[in-house]
Amino acid sequence: MEGCATSNQGAARILIVFMVSMALALAGSAGAFAGDVNFILGQKMLPQDDWQPVESQNELGVQMSWGKSTWPILIATDLYGSSKEDKDQGITGNTAEFALGIRKIWGHGHVRPYLGGGAAFMYGGAKVDFSGTVVEDTDTSPGAWADGGVFWRLGSHFNLGLAARYSKATVTLFDTDMEAGGYSGGVMLGWGWPGVKRADSHVQTAPKAVPKATGKRQKQGEKRPF
After folding, report:
1. Which CATH number is correct for 2-26+35-193, 3.30.200.20, 2.40.50.140, 2.40.160.20, 3.40.50.2300?
2. Which of 88, 100, 130, 182 fits as disulfide partner to 46, beta carbons 3.0 to 4.6 Å?
3. How many CB atoms lie within 10 A of CB 206?
4. DSSP for residue 70
5. Beta strands in the chain (DSSP E)
6. Which residue has better confidence, 18 or 54?
7. pLDDT per residue over 99-115, tens digit each?
């Protein structure tokens, strides 16, 4: 089982590298594509009956939305992982999620709310230490997800926001069916393209016209009437 967990961690690293590389390639496509890559740090709440005392887990996610700049809805490609260890009871629990779906992002300015959903490939694992004897079990299962939130575009490319998510999938650990999905939320920091166009603050104004003289030029030697 330990080899399986190590294999899953290696696959997660490969997926993250692939997603970031893909984002860089799309960002350099001269405006033909649009998207966002956001990193999310937060908490995932699993069902207490299944996961106590490790039901509240730290979560890290990579959320990628991409597609052609003319598409009203983007493709969602997400990767999430969560973990919690209770040293007093010798229990460690963790989950992972690779998700595909669609995501709608509103707005082209600085405030951008979004909603998304789709299918997921879920992983769940648990490890129990009985006085030095370690027992571990893992499982994978298909599932579903939905998310929503809002982020602000800071400057031309950087994103800062809040994210919420719900996922659902059943895994079997130690011959017991357990829910590997749950509710999660966190803060978002990322990068998007194309950049927000800034209004030109140096607006050039036309030079003022010099008024033409309305009177006739005074002839030499002519006295001015007073």
Report:
1. 2.40.160.20
2. 182
3. 5
4. T
5. 33-45, 56-68, 74-86, 91-105, 111-130, 133-154, 158-168, 170-173, 176-179, 183-193
6. 54
7. 999 999 998 788 999 99
Q: Where are the domains of the chain?
A: 2-26+35-193
Task: State phi, psi for 11 to the nearest 5 degrees.
Answer: -65, -35
Question: Based on C-alpha coordinates, what's the Rg of the chain?
Answer: 29
DSSP helix/strand/coil, 7:
helix
Contacts of 11 (CB under 8 A, 6+ apart): none
What is d(CA 207, CA 191) in angstroms, rounded to the nearest whole number? 42
Q: Is the dihedral of CA 56, 92, 38, 66 positive or negative?
A: negative
User: Residue for token digits 């229990």?
Assistant: 91
Amino acid (one-letter) located at 10: G
Q: In angstroms, rounded to a whole number, what is the distance separating the alpha carbons of residues 106 and 97? A: 25
Measure the CA–CA gap between 75 and 77, rounded to whole angstroms: 7
